[in-house]
Amino acid sequence: MSAITAHHDDHAHSHEPSFAQQLRSNRLGLWLFFFSELFLFAALLVARFFLWGGARPELSQVLGLIATSVLLLSSFFVYRAESAMAHGDRKTFQSGMLIAAFLGTLFFIGVVFMEWNIFGLQGEIAGIELFGHLKPTDGVFGAVFYAMTGMHALHVLSGIIFLLIVWNNGRKGHFSSEEHWGVEAAALYWHYVDVIWVFFYPALYLIGTAG
Amino acid sequence: MNTLSIWLTSAYVRGLIGQIIGTAVGFGFITAIRAVMGLDTSNIEPAVVFGALIGVPGSLLGAGVLTDWIKWIFGKKTPLRHGAPEGKPEWSRYINVDVNHKVIGIQYGFTSVLVLLIGGFFAVLFRIELAAPGMQYLTNDNFNTLFSAHGIIMIASILLGVGAMVNYLVPLMIGASDMAFPRLNAFSYWVGIPAVVLILSGMFVGGWDTGWVGYPPLSLRAPLGVQLFLLGFYINGLSSIAGSINLLVTVTTMRAKGMSLFRMPIFVWAAIAASIIQFTATQTVGMALLMVVTERTIGLNFFNPTTGGNPILYQHLFWFYSHPVVYVFILPGLGVISELLPVFSRKPLFGYKWIALSSLGIAFVGFLVWAHHMFTSGMNDALRIPFMISTMFVAIPTGVKFFSWMATMWEGKLSFETPMLFVLGSISVFLIGGVTGPILGTIPTDMHLHDSYWVVGHFHSTMFGGFVFPFFAAVYYWYPKISGKMYKESLGKLHFWLMTPAFWLMSLGQMRAGLLGMRRRIADYDPALGVETTQVLVTVAALVIGWSVLIMVYNLISSARSQKMAATNPWNSRSPEWQIPYPVPEFNYDAPFEVVGDPYDYGLDGSKYVQTIPMPAVGD
Predict the structure, then answer these.
(1) Is B110 found in the same domain as B72?
(2) Residue predicted with more confidence, B37 or A36
(3) Is the alpha carbon torsion for B144, B148, B151, B156 positive or negative?
(4) Is the peptide bond before B583 cis (omega within 30 degrees of 0)?
């Protein structure tokens, strides 16, 4: 069943969408993806309010606040990198992307290695505990906390990888001030993951009574 | 290269090998870690789950779906590749990764029918078991696994069928050269294959007894097979999300000149409404499924009440997707009905704008009714009445469609070729499904009928009327466009006249059994219920439906081999895809067209829907 006739490559190019049209499609597609992911994160927030109600677990407030600040700060550097690329300033672009990826990694370490404490570490500085106590098997507190931070950390991790890919391709000169959809997408994705945390952080650390 | 070696090096075989290797790697990795940590390695469940997850990228890598994207990571630009793989014949496009929406649409269609036959075969197996009380040749566990697999396999088949229609038709109908993201389109199809493999393999590692809903706490205690079912279901969701985003972008940015929203063929509206549901609600069921997987695998406790969990949470998240998803199934089906009726009635579609907006209306109301599945679940009583009322609202946009169909046919010049017969069949069957719905949506009657065979009868008539009949209508209708040949009308009519009365009998028989007290999802029943004759009739009807579908498969295959070409526009349709001769060019329209009138002005002298834009000579 051969329903389609093949064409030569030069003919194909005349049918492929222009960069401007493809950019329009890419932008819309990315925003629809964000909207779709909103339902994923909303489902987690529903689980949090359904199962925890007005209670929340005992968590290290200092650790949560520092991790949140680090993540918010990273968005500034991503923005700086993106606008540098738009102005053709490749040096600022590279440093911005690297700093953002570094801050994202700090956030990831703060959640996975310190708050989750997967290696069972202990220690404190100036009376502040550095490592969390909550275990994934600690009833609904553990379940929802690990599900929400885990799903978010997965997005942070993919975001870091995305930033590094874009940084590497930018370093090799694959983007220009006019055509840098990859940079734009990575930056938007990073801001998006950041904004999700703005809703997750109060739901986990602030709303409700501890204990 | 001979045919066998082309098949053996096809993306299906490479994907399967990739999935097996990926699964083995994931399984070995976790087993090794658990052994090093001194954990009990006789519990293979975590390793199986991780293996199943790694198997999916394994399959995609093996098939070659990810090749271009991996090159992008390293900064290589890759042009879209068109045509058959290097040194292979043209037909091998269909068994390899291809980015053309028509190829992908046909791949979806083939897979859908194949999966439909598998799911139907399961149904026949346990339907024969139910023909008499007592256990004949299945064990309880086999029965449970078979009906559970029937449910989810059929849903996979329907989603593939929707993918087939949407992928093949929408770019052609709106005058686009392809989908907006051709590679993502290929991904959407190919990620569904390991999902189906996962679900089917779940049947061989203990099966599962939860039905397709997978409610905890039962799913927390079910055999290992339930994990593969949950993961297969989840992976299928990725296909839905990627495909629906692609469709929405395509319709937004790639319509032909002059094709305003209310001048699109009506099927496109149905595809939009279905996609809106797919790309949002799928995420919540994905989360619900993951919660069960993580609760079983790493002990996160969401659903165990002794430590504060609540199984009702699963039902809310599950039905927030799984109610709207039935509209994902039926909206494209109802779109096909609205698309075909004017062609076979030779009259304008009655109330185009109302039909278009009623699709969006059904999609919107669909988000507000999920808890009507949970009237007996023990959820908060205050939710019952609002959800009963919102459920009744579904009847309004659905009623709009029914009245439009009646008015479209009214005083039309009807002709009764096979596609039209299936359209009329779907209206009759969907009506049965429609009028039996409010009885379930009303709280007092639902208390009585919940989990009875009445539900089975209602559900199957909505699915057959809303998807299966229209899908078959679409298959027959667009068959000449896809294959260039005409199917055999006599066999098509035989298919219809076997399937439709058999379906009425099956559906009404199921409802009768339910009214008499037959419960759903049980392998055996009390002869004192007085449902034995009904059960025999339902089983015979199911067998007739099965044979009639095989007749269609034979018809499609044997007609494709005939030498006689079909006419370019055998139905005298005004839709743009019928204005170009077979075969459709790689990029659909060699010369772009412009919309100059309304799509369904059948019978209006001198009216035109599309006309080709005269092109200046291009020197290429």
Answers:
(1) no
(2) A36
(3) negative
(4) yes
Does A148 score more than 90 pLDDT?
A: yes
Contact: A146, B316; criterion CB under 8 Å:
no
A170, pLDDT greater than 80 = yes
CATH number at residue B154: 1.20.210.10
Assess whether B311 and B364 both reside in one domain. yes
Q: What share of chain B is helix, strand, coil (3-state, %, to 5)?
A: 70, 0, 30
CA distances (Å), B233 to each of A97, B162, B452, in order? 37, 16, 25
* B103 contacts on A by Cβ (under 8 Å): 4
Residue range of the domain that includes B320: 98-612
Residues 6+ apart with CB under 8 A from A199: A41, A45
| B33/A contact by beta carbon, under 8 A | no
pLDDT of residue B476: 97
Mutate to test the interface with A, among B37, B74, B82, B618 (most CBs of A within 10 A): B82
Q: Which pLDDT score, from 0 to 100, does residue B516 have?
A: 95
Considering the domain boundaries, does residue B198 fall inside one? Answer: yes
Verify whether the Cβ–Cβ distance B301 to A140 is below 8 Å: yes
Q: What is the pLDDT of residue B509?
A: 96
> Nearest chain A Cα to B70, which residue?
A165
- What residues does B611 pair with on adjacent strands? B594
Chain B: nearest CA to A108, how far in angstroms? 20
* Span A12-33, pLDDT tens digits: 556 778 889 999 999 999 999 9
Euclidean distance between CA atoms A67 and A69, whole angstroms: 6
Q: Among residues of chain A, what percentage have pLDDT more than 90?
A: 72
Based on the fold, state whether residues B136 and B23 are members of the same structural domain. Answer: no
Look over chain A and give the mean of its residue pLDDT values, rounded to a whole number. 90
Of A36, A50, A136, the CB nearest to B283: A36
Amino acid present at B412: G
* ipTM, 2 dp: 0.94
Contact A2 B91 (CB under 8 A): yes
Structural domains in chain A, sorted by start: 59-210 (1.20.120.80)
Confidence of residue A1 (pLDDT cuts 50, 70, 90): very low
The whole-number pLDDT of residue B582 equals 86
Residues B475, B394 share a domain: yes
Name residues whose C-beta falls within 8 Å of residue A158's C-beta, 6 or more positions apart in sequence: none
Among candidates B178, B307, B620 on the partner chain, residue whose Cβ is nearest the Cβ of A10: B620
At residue B608, φ and ψ (nearest 5 deg) are -130, 145
Considering the domain architecture, whether residues B36 and B118 belong to the same structural domain is answered as: no
B586 touches chain A (CB under 8 A): yes
Q: Which two tokens stand for residue B592?
A: 């772009």
- My answer on whether B72 and B126 are in the same domain is no
- Stretches where chain B sits below pLDDT 70 are 1, 615-620
Task: Give me A59's structure tokens.
Answer: 């968590």
Residues of chain A positioned with their CB less than 8 A from the CB of B73: 165
Specify the number of domains making up chain B: 2
Residue A120: pLDDT band (50, 70, 90) is confident
pLDDT at B408: 96
Question: B419 lies in a domain?
Answer: yes
What are the backbone dihedrals phi and psi of residue A56, each rounded to the nearest 5 degrees, phi first? -150, 160
Interchain contact, B75 vs A174, CB within 8 Å = yes
For residue B618, being part of any structural domain is answered with no
Does B541 map to a domain? Answer: yes
Does one domain contain both B34 and B108?
no
Is the same domain home to B111 and B3? no
Distance CA B482, CA A160 (A): 45
Last residue of a domain, one of B30, B62, B97: B97
